[in-house]
Design brief:
Helix content: over 70%
Largest sheet: none
Strand content: under 5%
Distance between the termini: 17 Å
Structural class: mainly alpha
Number of domains: 1
Length: 290
């Protein structure tokens, strides 16, 4: 359990440092998402091969369409998140992106016929208020670029919520097997998208860009996903939910103290409302985190 907890803490901390590396890679968001998926798929595929873990495709043939859809949603999610990093601060982009669990809560009554409790409604309202504070209060709110970044972050949240919801219907595929197939599906959709929006521009990368690209693909995605899913198998749902909030907290600290990006008091309050009430909702009795 201690090893799993350390792996979860490490993976969430690594996820929180993604923003600065993305900004150092001078390619389009779609192209970067494609490279990220390819590098991560190579690493995860090699790990499964070397560890002798075969993918029993025949067993979950009926769920392949869902896997493909979730992989496509993952690829689009990455594109929109990378765009958010380019238009606004890393902290605001990340906090907007963490609106995804709120979207899942709002969609659950429609998809799973789950009635919302008073507590869930309160969490939804307060998290939405937090988003309003991030969007409409403070000096950054006067910037069109900032608002565009928030919209990209929210778009990424919508597609991340789609990944979460689709995964709820995928019951027979193990974590790493599922992730590899989702990476492959993301590659499948990102290749034509990249070709239609400018093609490949790897030749424009300098040494720093290449290093950051390899770090994002292999380390932030391949290695970290392996750590994350390995830890998730051993940790109770509520403990995993609590530790997952290390990601946005690290992202905010990196944004403010490393990148020297400004953040207003109201945006801090808004971020606390989103993260605090979303976490409270996830830790509701009987509500497990997958």
């Amino acid at each position: 359990m201690k090893r799993a907890r350390l792996m979860m803490i490490a993976s969430m901390g690594i996820f929180g440092t993604l923003g600065p590396f993305v900004r150092m890679i001078p390619v389009s968001s779609g192209e970067l998402a494609l490279y990220r998926a390819i590098l991560a798929a190579v690493l995860v595929g090699a790990y499964l091969l070397l560890s002798g873990q075969r993918i029993p495709i025949a067993r979950f043939r009926r769920e392949i369409p869902l896997l493909l859809l979730s992989g496509v949603a993952m690829g689009i999610n990455w594109i929109l998140l990378f765009q958010a990093y380019r238009f606004t601060t890393v902290s605001v982009a990340t906090l907007s992106y963490y609106f995804a669990p709120v979207i899942v809560t709002a969609a659950s009554p429609l998809l799973f016929r789950e009635a919302l409790s008073k507590k869930q409604i309160l969490c939804f309202v307060m998290s939405t208020l937090g988003l309003v504070l991030i969007t409409g209060v403070g000096e950054l709110s006067q910037s069109t670029s900032h608002l565009v970044g928030i919209l990209f972050g929210l778009g990424a949240a919508v597609f991340y919520a789609a990944v979460i919801l689709l995964n709820k219907f995928i019951r027979t595929v193990a974590g790493l097997h599922r992730t590899l197939l989702q990476f492959l599906a993301a590659i499948w959709i990102l290749i034509p998208y990249t070709a239609a929006t400018g093609g490949l521009t790897l030749g424009s990368l300098n040494a720093a860009g290449w290093i950051c690209l390899l770090i994002v693909g292999f380390f932030h995605t391949g290695v970290t996903y392996c750590m994350y899913f390995s830890a998730l198998k051993e940790l109770p749902g509520q403990k995993a939910a609590i530790l997952s909030y290390i990601d946005p907290l690290v992202a905010v600290l990196v944004s403010v103290f490393l990148l020297k990006e400004s953040i207003t008091l109201w945006q801090v309050v808004g971020g606390c409302l989103i993260l605090g009430f979303t976490l409270w909702n996830e830790l509701a009795p009987g509500n497990s985190v997958e």
